[in-house]
Specification:
Layout: H1 2-12, E1 27-31, E2 34-37, E3 42-45, H2 48-51, H3 60-72, H4 83-94, E4 102-106, H5 109-124, E5 128-132, H6 141-144, E6 162-165, H7 200-213, E7 220-225, H8 241-251, E8 255-259, E9 284-287, E10 298-302, H9 304-313, H10 324-339, H11 342-363, E11 367-373, E12 376-381, H12 393-405, E13 408-409, E14 411-413, E15 419-422, H13 430-448
Parallel strand pairs: 3-13, 5-6, 5-7, 7-8, 8-9
Antiparallel strand pairs: 1-2, 2-3, 4-10, 9-10, 11-12, 12-15, 14-15
Helix pairs in contact: 3-10, 4-10, 5-9, 7-8, 11-13, 12-13
This protein binds 4'-deoxy-4'-aminopyridoxal-5'-phosphate.
Length: 449
């Protein structure tokens, strides 16, 4: 029963495993973009298991591939070869530009980023790794040095030599810059930025240079960036910023790592990978979440040169990485994305959704910003548009809870947890978007009353 589950949770699960809602959901089943609880209530899943269920819960083609592999072979470890891994490596590498052709498979985004850090250090012979404020790159001891958002922020002694630099946030940063953002919304939104906001990119670049010139970053090994910051509340950088930042890092001998854990696999619509939306070519790309539609799986893709640098310096092994089940599922996910035109759907339905939610910004004073790309959208809640003070926690919690009660599950993010995050499975339809916008709007009206 529900109460028994809550009791077990309290007694036997670590207190860091916290539930999202005041009244936690106890889920029973998932079907494509919908989730069902034990009482038969259904919920439109607009957060897809934290941006993970890329092609839909229990997608029949993915399930069929998993069931087929289940009866053949579960596990070998990488000391033996097996076709699912090699087939998957060939398929995945075909989706990346030259020279990003060498793949190492892991089980989670944190592991993938840990490995990318090792590669950056092995290749550059330097030690320091930098990331943005507000970045989320994982929860392992290594990646926690890179993660800089809210209560995930490293509060333990680290000594890992990682460093966070500024965040070029176009909404909340000191230079604003919503006009500089590459978004269809900019044509219909009013800009509240400080005068000169359109010079935001140059200002941020100057600040980035200052960070690179500090002692710690003089021996820079690597620079990690999410193409759009996810956990930080769908934060976008000014147009052109990342390209210049990559050049500056490379001038100092560092390698550039794109963390595609949330932005990859067609979610952003216009491109298969988030880095392509910035017109940059990273040296290392890490990916997880959507890669396995919820099955534990992740990957690091790099150049032959960087892969060799690591192999020369150490032996690296991962028992479950490249597991036959994961690879069979990963292959099916790639096939479904292609066959069902899900990247195209992300583009079309995502643009439709962004414009629909953006209208709420004009209607409600507490909707400060609506931003994002494809099926990765952030709705930043404020006390009022002028001050941009975050809407108090209790009020955001209530809106969040009300949406759930009306059958819509959405995510949260940002330093003050002030941004609603929307990232449904890529099979989402326009009528479902209409439903979600209506529910969200009703929750806002309820809040104003
Ligand atoms: N990178 C990014 C951008 C993420 O959003 C996450 C997870 N939220 C991770 C890395 C870590 O992935 P995992 O939880 O699979 O370790």
């Amino acid at each position: 029963s529900y109460n028994r589950v809550l009791e077990i949770h309290k007694q036997h699960l670590s207190p860091v495993v916290t539930a999202y809602f005041q009244k936690p959901l106890l889920l029973h089943q998932g079907h494509m973009e919908w989730l069902f609880d034990f009482e038969g209530n259904r919920y439109l899943d607009f957060f897809s298991g934290v941006v993970t269920v890329s092609v839909g819960h229990c997608h029949p083609k993915v399930n069929a591939a998993a069931q087929k592999q289940l009866t053949h072979l579960w596990h070998t470890s990488t000391i033996f070869f097996h076709p699912p891994m090699h087939e998957y490596a060939e398929k995945l590498s075909a989706l990346l530009p030259e020279p990003l052709k060498v793949i190492f498979l892991t089980n989670s985004g944190s592991e993938a980023n840990d490995l990318a850090m090792l590669m950056a250090r092995a290749h550059s012979n330097n030690t320091d790794i930098i990331s943005f404020r507000g970045a989320y790159h994982g929860c392992s001891p290594y990646t926690l040095g890179l993660t800089n958002v809210g209560s995930f922020k490293m509060k333990l002694p680290s000594g890992m030599g990682c460093q966070a630099t500024m965040c070029p946030d176009v909404f909340r940063g000191p230079w604003g810059g919503s006009h500089c953002r590459d978004s269809p919304v900019q044509t219909i939104r009013k800009c509240n930025c400080a005068p000169g906001c359109c010079q935001a990119k140059d200002q941020y670049i100057e600040q980035f240079k200052d960070t690179l010139n500090t002692a710690v970053a003089k021996s820079i090994a690597g620079f990690f960036a999410e193409p759009i910051q996810g956990v930080n509340g769908v934060v976008q950088y000014p147009k052109g910023f990342l390209k210049e930042a990559f050049q500056l890092v490379r001038q100092r001998g560092g390698v550039c790592i794109a963390d595609e854990v949330q932005t990859g696999f067609g979610r952003l619509g216009s491109h298969f990978w988030g880095f392509q939306t910035h017109d940059v070519l990273p040296d290392i790309v890490t990916m997880a979440k959507g890669i396995g539609n919820g099955f534990p799986m992740a990957a690091v893709v790099t150049t032959p040169e960087i892969a060799k640098s690591l192999a020369k310096r150490l032996l690296h092994f991962n028992t479950f990485g490249g597991n036959p089940m994961a690879c069979a599922i990963g292959s099916a996910v790639l096939e479904v994305i292609k066959e069902d035109s899900l990247q195209e759907n992300s583009q079309e339905v995502g643009t439709y959704m962004l414009l629909k939610f953006a209208k709420l910004r004009d209607e409600f004073e507490i909707v400060g910003d609506v931003r994002g790309k494809g099926l990765m959208i952030g709705i930043e809640m404020v006390k009022d548009k002028m001050s941009r003070q975050p809407l108090p926690h209790e009020e955001i919690n209530q809106i969040h809870e009300d949406c759930k009660e009306m059958g819509l599950l959405i995510g949260r993010g940002g330093i003050f947890s002030q941004t609603f995050r929307i990232a449904p499975a890529m099979c989402i339809t326009k009528p479902e978007v209409d439903f979600a916008v209506e529910v969200f709007r009703s929750a806002l009206i309820q809040h104003m009353e």
